[in-house]
Design a protein that fits this description.
20% of the residues lie in helices and 30% in strands. By secondary structure, it is of the alpha+beta class. The chain is built from six helices and 16 strands. It has helices spanning 4-10, 16-24, 115-122, 146-150, 189-196, 227-237; strands at 2-3, 28-30, 33-34, 41-42, 48-50, 53-54, 62-67, 96-98, 105-112, 130-137, 153-154, 157-158, 163-170, 175-182, 201-209, 222-224. It has three domains: 2-54, Structural Genomics Hypothetical 15.5 Kd Protein In mrcA-pckA Intergenic Region, Chain A, CATH 3.10.290; 62-125 and 216-237, Alpha-Beta Plaits; 130-209, 2-Layer Sandwich (Alpha-Beta Plaits), CATH 3.30.70. The radius of gyration is 20 Å and the shape is elongated. The strands form four sheets. Strands 7, 8, 9, 10, 13, 14, 15 and 16 form an eight-stranded mixed β-sheet that branches. Strands 3-2-5-6 form a four-stranded antiparallel β-sheet. A hairpin with a 2-residue loop joins strand 11 and strand 12. The mean pLDDT is 92.
Length: 238
């Protein structure tokens, strides 16, 4: 027997967290009866419906996507804006993003239909490094960014220590390129951290996720992860 939310996530319908929301909101039926409580367990012979559609088991798939700016990290948007899955029409499985990138942030995003995999990578206790390249206003000295290495308070919570590197500066335009490595995933975290030390972000890109990179790819392109890459991410999440 398996927990209902886990079975829904494994089917590729939604992440584990989203599956729990679907149950609470009354969108899930087991053998014709609506279920709204957590903890319900099901067996293989049970019929499970999500919003009236029976779920079926899918093989797990894992993709690396180069998200362009101006795209929502979601599978749908009520305002009609482009979402990441618009670029992946050739993928038959019902995939969803692992975590998110802001609308105006570009870079590396993972998508899958494996709920357990997504949960391992996004759970706060797992420390998978994510590397960002930010164009910021101003020309910082290294000591200006030192608070980032100790962790800074953002909205009443202290961030985990981050690694930083000033890649280049432009004294004429008064802008700089800064690399920041974090393992948390709070909303707008990189922007808020850099703004907190006095250097607002003009443009932001996620370059690395663990050891994964975007080499040879253009915005809007995607590729499958190799088995080695998948296993490496699972190891990092431990």
């Amino acid at each position: 027997m398996e927990r209902l939310q886990k079975v829904i996530a494994q089917s590729g319908v939604a992440s584990r967290r989203k599956s729990e929301e679907l149950i609470r909101e009354g969108h899930v039926k087991v053998n014709g009866k609506t279920v709204t409580e957590m903890g319900v367990k099901v067996v293989g012979s049970d019929t499970i419906e999500v919003r009236g559609v029976p779920i079926t088991e899918e093989s797990y798939v894992y993709y690396l996507f180069y998200k362009p700016r101006g795209v929502i990290s979601a599978v749908s948007d009520d305002k009609g804006r482009k979402v990441v899955t618009d670029f992946m029409a050739g993928v038959p499985e019902r995939i969803y993003p692992v975590g998110r990138l802001d609308y105006d942030t570009s870079g590396l995003l993972l998508l899958t239909n494996d709920g357990d995999f997504a949960n391992k990578l996004t759970h706060p206790k797992h420390e998978v490094n994510k590397t960002y390249i930010a164009k910021v206003k101003g020309v910082p000295f290294p000591q200006d960014l030192k608070p980032l290495a100790k962790g800074i308070n953002i909205e009443g919570r202290k961030t985990a220590p981050a690694e930083y590197n000033i890649i280049s500066t432009d004294n004429v335009k008064k802008t700089s390129i800064v690399e920041l490595v974090i393992h948390e995933g709070r909303n707008h975290q990189v922007k808020k951290m850099l703004e907190a030390v006095g250097y607002p972000v003009i443009k932001l890109k996620r370059e690395l996720y663990g050891d994964l990179n975007l080499h040879g790819m253009k915005p809007g392109q995607y590729r499958s992860l190799s088995k080695r890459e998948i296993n490496a991410l699972i190891e990092l999440s431990k």
